[in-house]
Design brief:
six-stranded mixed sheet, 2 domains, six-stranded parallel sheet, Rossmann fold, Jelly Rolls, 22 strands, alpha/beta
Length: about 375
């Protein structure tokens, strides 16, 4: 299908594009602020529209009006399409409450539903709880993003405790994709994790206190993994490499590659001849560690759909780990003149039916070199 995604450069939109790219063969047409004027033309022959764009913060009038205006733009484009595209709306559990955001979302839902009915399009209202995940903007997308940024920078934010339901943004993306691939339901309401604001702060703080020296915190539930990946994204790239102590005596040296405090995992070692590159892929959720044991290497990464490259030059003489952030394409190249020996660790045991490994090259046309450490 040709799938148009509005709000493609935002938090949910970026995650949605990453999941579509990894798990489907759909043609993805991202619509953001820079090319919003092309919406009508792109929807004209689209098979599906995922309306994710929205206004979350700002003066009350702008929040309510902004969500309504975006819905009108999508509705007009759907009415002018050559055939009836499937339409899914990223709604909120706040829809209909007495707030500018809630009122705006409610009116937007009505506008889109009427437009879909007028042309015979299937319409699915995807009602989402509070979202969190990698690369959320602090003080904007989620209090979890604010907390992850604070923890990573040794800051303590104001904490107003309350019960909250949290859903990882990749699960929200899954529900939106389900909405256009299976239109049997008019409404989808994915369930999040019941927790508390203070509980999230405690989990992130405890994870960071372990991880800042290279230890892996407990990863016994998917929720713990999702929070850890959110924290790692807030720390990348400035907190890496994480140096590991090398203990040496007359017998040789010893380095502790992984100290995991709970959960499963798998370790493996590779050898690479000079000049050869391994990797060229990304992961949606896997925690993966690189540690060069012998030789020299360059580890390069690029955030999916971005151009800037981040590179780390590492050596077995100074053991240090680089943990691959989720949805960053990465590789490792032997830059020395001897065989490279690299230790790898993942938080899951490899499953060939669900490898969570998606091939994309780090280098691409237009890529620019960024930080190198």
């Amino acid at each position: 299908m040709k799938v148009v995604v509005t709000g493609a450069d935002g938090f949910l939109g970026w995650h949605l594009r990453a999941r579509l790219h990894a798990l489907t063969s759909h043609e993805i047409v991202p619509i953001g602020r820079r090319n919003f004027e092309t919406l009508e033309r792109q929807v004209r022959d689209a098979d599906a529209v995922l309306h994710v764009a929205g206004v979350n913060r700002g003066p009350d009038g702008e929040v309510e009006k902004g969500n309504v205006e975006l819905a009108h733009a999508v509705a007009n484009a759907v009415r002018k399409s050559r055939h009836a595209p499937r339409l899914a709306f990223a709604n909120s559990i706040q829809c209909g409450n007495d707030s500018p955001y809630g009122r705006g979302k409610a009116e937007a839902q009505d506008i889109l539903a009427v437009a879909a009915t007028s042309v015979g399009s299937p319409f699915v209202d995807v009602v989402l709880p509070n979202l969190f995940g990698e690369h959320g903007r602090p003080d904007y997308n989620s209090f979890v993003a604010t907390f992850a940024h604070a923890v990573a920078n040794d800051l303590v934010p104001e904490i107003n405790d309350r019960e909250v339901e949290l859903l990882h943004v990749q699960q929200a993306a899954k529900s939106l994709i389900d909405a256009i691939e299976d239109t049997s339901a008019a409404t989808l309401r994915p369930s999040g994790e019941p927790t508390s604001v203070a509980g999230i702060w405690q989990t992130l703080s405890e994870a960071h206190s372990l991880y800042r020296s290279g230890d892996i915190p407990p990863l016994t539930t998917q929720f713990e993994v999702d929070l850890f990946n959110t924290l790692r994204a807030a720390m990348f790239p400035w907190a890496y490499p994480i140096s590991l102590p090398l203990r040496s005596d007359h017998r040789g040296g010893l380095v502790e590659c992984v100290r995991a405090h709970g959960g499963q995992g798998q370790s493996f070692v590779s050898t690479t001849v000079p000049g050869v590159t391994r990797g060229e892929h990304f992961h949606l959720g896997k925690v993966e560690r690189f540690l060069v044991l012998r030789g020299r290497a360059r580890i390069s990464l690029r955030r999916l759909f971005h151009d800037e490259l981040v590179s780390f030059d590492v050596s077995g003489d100074q053991p240090a780990v680089i943990d691959m952030p989720t949805m960053w394409v990465h590789n490792i190249t032997n830059t020395g003149d001897t065989e490279l020996v690299t230790f790898f660790w993942t938080h899951t045991i490899f499953d060939s039916a669900h490898p969570d490994t998606y091939a994309v090259t780090v280098e691409r046309s237009g890529a620019v070199t960024g930080m190198s450490a």
